């Protein structure tokens, strides 16, 4: 499906594989996040996220940053470190056990959920799986603090609950990192964020190539908005960038 979308999406990024905009400081921060077992994202995915955030900052695009599904907070810490203190970063998560998939999800999703549900999932580097932690909200707060990030002074909000209940962007959005795995929360994020996404802003879907529910929701949504976006999946995630329909 992705190849078909690319043929009609408009200007698609080339496949050179280069990830621009990642500084030595970014790489050091990424290494520290990984050393503390705070992210499941590959180095390429982290680099894509930070380079996109930096490009948005440098271009002066308006709008908030968002993350849906933060796990232990690694990628959100990266975003908070790159953005200006004035730009809001809203981090949405249930901060607990991942919600159950629905009938719209694919068999791979249901198989994975059963492993999690039965206590058989292993965390990063053999750590306790984050969904089994007693108070994940407090853990994520501590993780932010350990990187010197002060939530309120740096305009970072941790918002607890299902994205279906909590995510309602009312202003422009410049960047949304969506890492909520299953069909329903991914579709919710796309339907609510894309209309608020500024031209030049991006939604990065971490799980497009990993979970069938995410891929199914994304393909269905993108068919509705053909011609208004470009796609880039060089990093292993899927970056959807909004374009001006007048051009």
Automatic annotation (TrEMBL):
Pfam families the UniProt entry points to: TylF (PF05711)
Cell division recorded as keyword: no
Enzyme class label: transferase
GO biological process, one term: methylation
Any one GO molecular-function label of the UniProt entry: methyltransferase activity
Coiled coil: none
Keyword Methyltransferase assigned: yes
Alphabetical keyword list: Methyltransferase, Transferase
Gene3D superfamilies named among the record's database cross-references: Vaccinia Virus protein VP39
EC number: 2.1.1.-
Protein name per Swiss-Prot or TrEMBL: TylF/MycF/NovP-related O-methyltransferase
Species assigned in the record: Piscinibacter gummiphilus
Source organism phylogeny: Bacteria, Pseudomonadati, Pseudomonadota, Betaproteobacteria, Burkholderiales
């Amino acid at each position: 499906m992705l190849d078909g979308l690319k043929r009609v999406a408009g200007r698609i990024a080339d496949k050179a594989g280069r990830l621009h905009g990642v500084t030595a400081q970014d790489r050091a921060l990424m290494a520290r996040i990984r050393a503390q077992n705070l992210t499941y994202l590959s180095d390429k995915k982290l680099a894509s996220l930070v380079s996109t955030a930096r490009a948005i900052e440098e271009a002066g695009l308006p709008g908030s940053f968002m993350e849906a599904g933060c796990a232990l907070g690694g990628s959100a810490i990266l975003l908070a470190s790159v953005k200006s203190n004035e730009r809001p970063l809203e981090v949405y998560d249930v901060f607990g056990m991942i919600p159950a998939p629905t009938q719209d999800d694919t068999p791979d999703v249901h198989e994975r959920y059963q492993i999690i549900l039965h206590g058989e999932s292993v965390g990063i580097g053999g750590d306790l799986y984050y969904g089994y932690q007693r108070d994940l909200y407090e853990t994520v707060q501590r993780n932010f603090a350990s990187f010197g990030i002060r939530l309120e002074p740096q305009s970072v909000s941790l918002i607890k609950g299902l994205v279906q209940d909590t995510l309602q962007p009312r202003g422009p959005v410049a960047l949304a990192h969506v890492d909520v795995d299953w069909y329903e929360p991914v579709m919710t994020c796309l339907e609510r964020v894309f209309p608020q996404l500024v031209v030049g802003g991006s939604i990065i879907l971490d799980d497009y190539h990993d979970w069938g529910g995410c891929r199914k929701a994304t393909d269905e949504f993108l068919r509705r908005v053909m011609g208004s976006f470009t796609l880039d999946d060089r990093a292993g995630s899927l970056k959807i960038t909004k374009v001006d329909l007048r051009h």
